[in-house]
Amino acid sequence: MHPPIPAQRPVSVTCLGYGGLIPFVALATACLAWPALRATWWVPALLGYGAVILSFVGALHWGFAMTMPDMPLRQRHACFAWSVVPALVAWPALLVPPAAGATLLIIGFAAHLVQDFRLQRSVVLAPWYLHLRVRLTSVACACLALGAWTSMR
C-alpha cells in the first residue's frame, strides 16, 4: 500500500522549489548590475545552473516511472526514456554561444513542462505539482532569457 498523495504542497517542497530559483534570479540580476563580469562569470554561471536544474527536472520522470505502480508499462518506458532527454539538451547548451545555450535551455524547460502536462493526463500527480512546475519554469525561463539578452549586448 502506498501513502496517499498530499493534497497540500509540503512546506519543504515550497522552500526547496522557490529556493532553487534564488541562483536564477541572483545571476540574472548580476548580469544587469555588473556588466563587466557578464561574459566571464554571470552568464556562464546562469547557463551552468540552468543545465543542472534542467537535468534534475528530467529525473523527476524517472522517479515517477519507478514509483507509480498503476502506470501503464508503455508510459513507464516513455517516462524512463524522456527522463534523460533534458540532460541531453542541457549539456550542449553549455557548448554553444550563450544566447543559443540559453535558448536551448528554455526550449528544454518548456518541453519538460509539456511532458508534465501529458503525464498528468494518464496518472495521478499531486494536485499542487503542475502549478508549482509552471511557476518555477516561468521564472527560470525568464531569467535565462534575460541572460541571453544581456549576452548579446
Quick recap:
Helices cover about 75% and strands about 0% of the residues. It has helices at about 10-20, 20-35, 40-65, 75-95, 100-120, 130-150.
Give the structural class: mainly alpha
Instruction: Tell me which oligomeric state these chains represent.
Output: single chain
Number of domains: 1
* Count of DSSP H/I helices: 6
> In total, how many beta strands?
0
Radius of gyration: 17 Å
| Proportion of helical residues | over 70%
Uncertain segments = none
* DSSP strand content: under 5%
How far apart are the termini?
A: 56 Å
Query: How does the overall form come out from the CA principal axes?
Result: globular
Largest sheet: none
The sequence of SSEs as H and E is HHHHHH
Mean pLDDT: 95
Relevant terms:
153 residues, mainly alpha
Give your account of this protein's structure.
With 153 residues, the chain is mainly α. Helix content is 77%, strand content 0%. It has one domain. Helix 3 (38-67) packs antiparallel against helix 4, helix 3 (38-67) packs parallel to helix 5 (98-120) and helix 4 packs antiparallel against helix 5 (98-120). The model has no long low-confidence stretch (mean pLDDT 95).
